[in-house]
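Supplementary Methods, section 5.1.

A reviewer requested that the exact input to the structure prediction be made available. We therefore reproduce it here, unchanged from the version used in the analyses.
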Amino acid sequence: MSRQKTDDDTNNAERTRTIRVSGTPVQVTREIYETYYAMERRLRTLEEKDARNGVIHIPDYGCLRGTYHALEDSLEEQVLRKLEYERLHESLHMLSEPEAELIRALFFYGETERSFADRKRIPRATVHNQKKRVLKKLKKIIENSCANRA
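The structure derived from this sequence is encoded token-by-token as follows.
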């Protein structure tokens, strides 16, 4: 026996939910709440997958680290972050043009390995292997840059 939708059911569906943004509770609709937590879970899944596959995250190395929230940062933190980004971009200039193009496409423009491979008309496995090699090279460049500045 199915029951009919009542006003209470409608009110429960439309009732606001609370999420925490930078530690502050924020009232949101059910749709935003579900999307927010689905997005968080997807991020955790991707991080777990990256950890299993040994993916290198450039901000995790040496002098380049942290997650940045510009609106919350002090002026000092913003200046330090700008210096770190400058180091990253200087390091990118030390790569060959094809290497830098690969990194920019995959990490700055969000292109997938598959779409990059299709666009360049090369096998996806080749792109994946090139990415791993270039990230190792970039890691060494950044570490040397950090060591030279210390």
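Residues 12-54 form one domain. These observations are discussed further in the main text.
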